[in-house]
Write a structure and sequence with these properties.
It is a single chain. By secondary structure, the chain is mainly alpha-helical. The protein folds into two domains: 20-160, Receptor-associated Protein; 190-437, Type II secretion system (T2SS), domain F (Receptor-associated Protein, Up-down Bundle). 72% of the residues lie in helices and 5% in strands. The chain contains 17 helices and three strands. Strands 2-1-3 form a three-stranded antiparallel sheet. Helix 4 runs antiparallel to helix 5 (130-144) and helix 16 runs antiparallel to helix 17 (379-434).
Length: 437
Amino acid sequence: MSDPLPKADVGTPFPPKKQQFFECNVRSRSTPGGPVSILQMSGASVEDVIQQLLKQGFIVVSVKPMKGSRDHLQKALSFGSGAPRGSFFFMKKVSVRELIFFGVQLGTLIKAGIPLLRSLEIVGKGTSNPYFRDVLQRLTKRISEGSSFAVALRECSDVFPWIWVNLVEVGETTGKLPECLEEISRYQEAAARIQGKIITAFFYPGILSLAVTGALTFLMLFIVPKFAAIFAEQNAELPTLTRIVVTISNLLRFQAPLLLLFIFGIAVAFFFLKKNPKSRLLIDHYFLGTPLFGELSLQVAVVRFSRSLGTLLRSGIQILQALEISGRLVENSYLEAHIKQVAQAVKGGQGLGLQLEARKIFPVFMTQLLSTGEETGQMENFLAIIANYYEETVDRFLARLTVLLEPILLIFMGGVIGTVVISMFLPIIELSMGGKL
């Protein structure tokens, strides 16, 4: 599909004179009571930006200058302007937050009646990421050459997840592209929220583990050898604990390449096992049965499955295709395999909730709610209820797990370091009591 650029000036958001960047909260004029969208635009003043937004058919809620926009963002824009397709950027990455803003802004512009090509140009000029701007320029070029939006997105699979391609393709087919873009943005925002909570919960334990591991490595490589040399000079018979610690220290000092090679070999073997479908199925199945982390993984999988399935169904995708996509988004091959079996049963006329419950891969509470949604014809609403409920469950679980992990890690790692320190002082105490020092 290709939208010709309008000849009339619909309000150029980036005039050639010196600009300042603004954050704009707007609503579509066609839906005055709809949600507020955030746009990034530039202009000589607040009044200038308001006039541009009004010409483009928006209801302006607020406009405020972005901090540091005059210098930092202007440099960022000029950095990528005119750069060739293969040019080097400081960071060739597009964050999830940028994709969310892109979906919201593009959907709002298209809903306001602005053609797709023009909307892409407006959003592209408003982004502060030079690499993302280059990607949007490539999208614009491919669409202007006659490709559909979905095909153009598929060629940028390193930036846009494949769920974008599926939903955009549905939006173009049904004529509901703005609605599908909004669904994508809502789904990605929810997925990013749950991922952020998991990262936050394990951030402190991870930092603590790294710090203690560094301290332990320092002790084993530099402190223990000095004590070992002193003990060797005294020809003292070392306690069992001290001999074990000195042996480990010597292994780390003199056999480090072999140890690193061994660890590297395990990592490579695990990588190839994950690539093999059968072994990956066994690993994912085993992981679901591990204490604490298996339960957390299952709850996150329920959130992902419910959220993605509801998003796809609301976007107009048929149930069988939606199940296939949702199964992949669960990111667990064991659950994905069972969801594929469920899809085949649904194809034969079986109920989704009953089939999921029969295979016992998800909690009974979730499958019962899903069956109720099927019976009442409100599956999308019940999927949203399930996703919200289990997201709150994950929040509570992570809060309890964090409180539990911190003291366990402190006690365990304090015990390890304490054991090393005690093992070095035991021979000194024995020598002192024996009167040899």
